[in-house]
């Protein structure tokens, strides 16, 4: 029966080598198949042309390749591409390709739905169904890399874990996917081109620091005042700012990597001088960069983008305190592909 077969990409290279030895073949056959599965991203055993027909049939009998399928692709007038990606069990997640003059960035999902409940985010309205497997995350990157080559004539240059889901709530699989993305047997990308963006789970940030990961960390902060942050990101009640700061301090002491904060300024929520002063104070303990992101309203309009004056106030105050700041325009708004808009509406 189809369901009794194992997902072959859940096996490590060593387990695959052992499988072949146990079946009277050479361990080396495991290396060949592993290369087909990851580096060549094979969708079927049939395409593995340097493997004998007999072996391919034996693999077919024992395993499946649960490859994702890009169910629908939408292109924005600004070039942004959004993929609705179908998983082996029929569930859908979204991933986005963001092109600029100098780079193409993949924004990938790590969970179906999300475990958290940020009030401004469309994904939070979807119940968390399950975590994505490492291969499902990897496949999103491969699909976007192919699109980047096809439509922009260059390979994918950067990856952000900023799509659907909280990556640190699917820690093990996210790290395994990064291992594959960066390994020579996978895509061979530099970890410096990968950013994991979290809402801030202190325990997991410390764990990452202990494991000396090489990728970048970004924190969706949005307020440095507990009361305000809890009102827009209710889980902040359990992980208050003092715990987050302590974890980030630990991260910096171990990695010496600058911390990036993602920050949206909303009208009437966090657009006062007191809000920016709290942010400056929060940033002081380590070299920081603040990305101010334009907000993309989701349908009920409870959150509105702050005025240009408020954004200017943030920018000037941060710069006056020697904190690097960028103000990012939103991309792909017309196809609901912008930050906070991913909600399987396509
Ligand atoms: S902003 Fe991120 S962590 Fe918060 S609900 Fe949306 S997907 Fe989840």
TrEMBL record:
<feature type="binding site">
    <location>
        <position position="114"/>
    </location>
    <ligand>
        <name>[4Fe-4S] cluster</name>
    </ligand>
</feature>
<dbReference type="InterPro" id="IPR004383">
    <property type="entry name" value="rRNA_lsu_MTrfase_RlmN/Cfr"/>
</dbReference>
<feature type="domain" description="Radical SAM core">
    <location>
        <begin position="100"/>
        <end position="334"/>
    </location>
</feature>
<feature type="binding site">
    <location>
        <position position="118"/>
    </location>
    <ligand>
        <name>[4Fe-4S] cluster</name>
    </ligand>
</feature>
<keyword id="KW-1015">Disulfide bond</keyword>
<comment type="function">
    <text>Specifically methylates position 2 of adenine 2503 in 23S rRNA and position 2 of adenine 37 in tRNAs.</text>
</comment>
<dbReference type="InterPro" id="IPR040072">
    <property type="entry name" value="Methyltransferase_A"/>
</dbReference>
<keyword id="KW-0408">Iron</keyword>
<protein>
    <recommendedName>
        <fullName>Probable dual-specificity RNA methyltransferase RlmN</fullName>
        <ecNumber>2.1.1.192</ecNumber>
    </recommendedName>
</protein>
<keyword id="KW-0698">rRNA processing</keyword>
<keyword id="KW-0489">Methyltransferase</keyword>
<dbReference type="InterPro" id="IPR058240">
    <property type="entry name" value="rSAM_sf"/>
</dbReference>
<dbReference type="InterPro" id="IPR007197">
    <property type="entry name" value="rSAM"/>
</dbReference>
<dbReference type="InterPro" id="IPR027492">
    <property type="entry name" value="RNA_MTrfase_RlmN"/>
</dbReference>
<feature type="binding site">
    <location>
        <position position="296"/>
    </location>
    <ligand>
        <name>S-adenosyl-L-methionine</name>
    </ligand>
</feature>
<feature type="active site" description="S-methylcysteine intermediate">
    <location>
        <position position="339"/>
    </location>
</feature>
<feature type="binding site">
    <location>
        <position position="197"/>
    </location>
    <ligand>
        <name>S-adenosyl-L-methionine</name>
    </ligand>
</feature>
<dbReference type="InterPro" id="IPR013785">
    <property type="entry name" value="Aldolase_TIM"/>
</dbReference>
<feature type="binding site">
    <location>
        <begin position="165"/>
        <end position="166"/>
    </location>
    <ligand>
        <name>S-adenosyl-L-methionine</name>
    </ligand>
</feature>
<feature type="binding site">
    <location>
        <position position="121"/>
    </location>
    <ligand>
        <name>[4Fe-4S] cluster</name>
    </ligand>
</feature>
<keyword id="KW-0819">tRNA processing</keyword>
<dbReference type="GO" id="GO:0032259">
    <property type="term" value="P:methylation"/>
</dbReference>
<comment type="similarity">
    <text>Belongs to the radical SAM superfamily. RlmN family.</text>
</comment>
<keyword id="KW-0963">Cytoplasm</keyword>
<dbReference type="GO" id="GO:0008168">
    <property type="term" value="F:methyltransferase activity"/>
</dbReference>
<feature type="active site" description="Proton acceptor">
    <location>
        <position position="94"/>
    </location>
</feature>
<keyword id="KW-0411">Iron-sulfur</keyword>
<dbReference type="InterPro" id="IPR048641">
    <property type="entry name" value="RlmN_N"/>
</dbReference>
<keyword id="KW-0004">4Fe-4S</keyword>
<dbReference type="Pfam" id="PF04055">
    <property type="entry name" value="Radical_SAM"/>
</dbReference>
<keyword id="KW-0479">Metal-binding</keyword>
<feature type="binding site">
    <location>
        <begin position="220"/>
        <end position="222"/>
    </location>
    <ligand>
        <name>S-adenosyl-L-methionine</name>
    </ligand>
</feature>
<keyword id="KW-0808">Transferase</keyword>
<dbReference type="Pfam" id="PF21016">
    <property type="entry name" value="RlmN_N"/>
</dbReference>
<keyword id="KW-0949">S-adenosyl-L-methionine</keyword>
